[in-house]
Amino acid sequence: MEKNRLDQKFDELIGGAREKITWMLQEIGNRQSARGLFISGRTQREFCEATTQTFKTTYLECQKYAFHLSSGFGDVDRLDEFAAKLIDVLMAIIFDGRSGLRLGLAPHPSLRNDLDKLRRGLTEDFRLGILDGVRPKKDTEVKVNVNQSNSPGANAQVGVGNNISQTVHFEAHQELINAVNQALESREFVRLSHEQKEEFRNTATIVTDEASKRQPDVGKLRYWGGRLIQFAEKILSDVIAAAIKAHLP
Known about the structure:
The structure is a single chain. The protein has 9 helices and 3 strands. The chain has helices at residues 3-34, 41-70, 76-95, 111-127, 172-184, 187-190, 194-211, 218-235, 238-245; strands spanning 142-147, 155-160, 164-169. Helix 5 packs antiparallel against helix 7 (194-211). The longest helix is centred in the first third of the chain and has 32 residues, at 3-34.
């Protein structure tokens, strides 16, 4: 394992997680404040969900980087130390009034315990040779096959060995945007109350704005897309929710 490169990645991921959770908490706080619901159980729940999502995606990204760097499952203890530090950073942002988040509402008292439990589970998975739910081969071969064109179906395939491969379809984000727009134009949406429309539209705008970026933040898309799907299931229909979910990364 190349220690310096991994340490640099640790610092990069910590910085990215700090920016991401700050942005997400501000978005949640501003939205709930505008509705007069900042001090509420719902806001508390959303803070916890955002923090958990940020921790999980960041730690998994770190594990994947370490796996690619060493072509195996080494340095488990260092990865676990990184995850523990990451939890400290996230919790400090939530409780630090100087952050500008004006968090008069504390997260659920079990949040740190829940994050520690998730950390232990992901660390143990990595120790057992499991990465993000799959068991890749310890293969040093890196296969890269990139095809790019101006056509909508252009795609890039990047993988390690035969067991980790990812196909990124560049049209997928546009399909996600289309699915969200179709939800906004549906008969079910028209029948909603003004408050329900506003809530759904605000979340939809966050999703489509992020999806429209040249390099969308997958963590943000998954978090806000997941919330949009929950809204759709609750106030629109399962069919509309499934259409959005089908195109979420």
